[in-house]
Task: structure prediction
Amino acid sequence: MQQEHEAAARRVRIAARALGRAGLVHAYGHCSERLDAEAFLVCPPMPMAQTPVGARCDRVAISGALPTNILGEVRLHQQIYARRPEAGGVVRFMGPNMMALAALGRVPRPRHGFGCYFEPGVGLWDDPQLVRDDEKAIGAITAMGAGRAVLMRGNGAVVWGESLEAATVLAWYLEDMCRIELIALQTGLADVAPVIAGPQAEARATRAGRIIERMWDHLTAGDPELDRQ
Result:
């Protein structure tokens, strides 16, 4: 059990640094990995790119009050793990394109391959306040609907995946999806440009060919803890 716990903590630290290197987080943001039906591990409450090798990752119960040393918005992770038994990892991030689109109160539509992984759509929590109580956390994750991501107006986004690796990759995909949407808006073509939806999007969102694994390898290349896995 201790070996499994440390392997999970190592993945959390690797993901935290990868998200920082990719410019998806800065002083703020957090990621976590499910341990079991009762708890998950969350990264240290510090700028994620600066997460030290071997840093402690805290265990958080999926239900109940947060420990006093845990960031308040980790409630978002609790809500996802409680509602989605298939969720193995969660990322809360602030990519620049996503932040710009969220500030406009808009969500991206699936216009290229990466966007198809969010079928049936990205949710919007239309409240710019920090999510530091259970009521807001419930509201934000409810706004996610049946999808894998929710944009919070003026306040970043949350994504989940079957693993922390998948959640990290989906954060990168969502940022690129928002980049494409902003271009569509800037060109004035957002209302007429094609989208990929329904069965076509589901078919395009393949996991074959190590799709998730290759992007994870790209994002984590050179990490100091990779050789310890």
Notes: The chain has a mean pLDDT of 96. The chain has seven helices and seven strands.
